[in-house]
Amino acid sequence: MQDTDRRFMALALGLGRRGQGNAWPNPAVGCVLVKDGRIIGRGWTAPGGRPHAETQALAQAGAAAAGATAYVTLEPCAHHGQTPPCAAALVAAGVARVVVATRDEDPRVSGRGLQMLRDAGINVQTGVLEAEAQADLAGFFKSRRHGLPFLTLKLASSFDGRIATATGESQWITGPQARHHVHGLRLAHDAVMVGAGTARSDDPLLNVRGFGQVPQPVRVVLSRRLDLPLNSRLAHSAGDVPLWLCHGPDADAALVQAWQGVGARLFECPVVGAHLAPHAVLQALATAGLTRVFCEGGSALAAALLAEDLVDQLVGYTAGLVIGAEGFPGIGAMGLDRLGAAARFQLHHSQALGGDVVHIWARSP
User: Is 105 a catalytic residue?
Assistant: First the structure.
């Protein structure tokens, strides 16, 4: 693998990340066109999934694309959908070489895009920064393999793992830099998800703030009975920012109609015990097109997701204060009596954010 290929693929990966959170249901792909050592075109998947990265890069390069090398983070598509195949567009533009980070597992593509390029006499190389591309596209791949979105579970807590005092006071355990970081992660996900208890107690907006005019993630609330306040900020903003409510079959029909009336999209999901079935909820969200979900609580929902091994990434914000055992724990009861039964995560990244620390953990393979 040439250092030049790695450098330009790293640029393509950076471009692809710009589409995270707003390209769904399509993957967030990046593309860089290079000729004689100079970048002549670049692109990333547009909001809503179209135009594709290759299309935008080729449009920028114009006729100069002939004889160029294209660096693409995911195998170019080979099927006709709402747009022509990107592989065919690269062939038509006359590119001489295509470097791909990772193959597409979508059965409509899966090697066909690479073969289309090779059949046209284009030099094709794969596997450049593949691990990085697989990580960036984990949500897209998981939704195709398992029908589930990539799930990040976030927790902001005191040093002793408490998210509020005994009286319920929680604003603010962490400082402004940590909270700004949270909004950046919201921006990189398709949806922000909370349980009904969090929605009732905090009256959150669950939107992205502090990043200017940006596409907003879908707000998802799990409420078995839909007993959420219709005078909440979520209800008042449902016509402006998507609000999806997951409820059980026993939700009152009048509440279903009321929430639909304010603009919310409703998903009826099965119930296990006294709560919505987490696996079924995530399946419904993936079927609706979501690939990356950012869960921000509460403790019962977090415990249920962990207990069913549905969490792919943990993001913890730890503040330098101690609340004590009478405070509220960040994770509810899970019924574990053996350490061996607990899911293990591997530390991926940690850094100081003002007076707090953020630590990101990936599920062990």
Answer: no
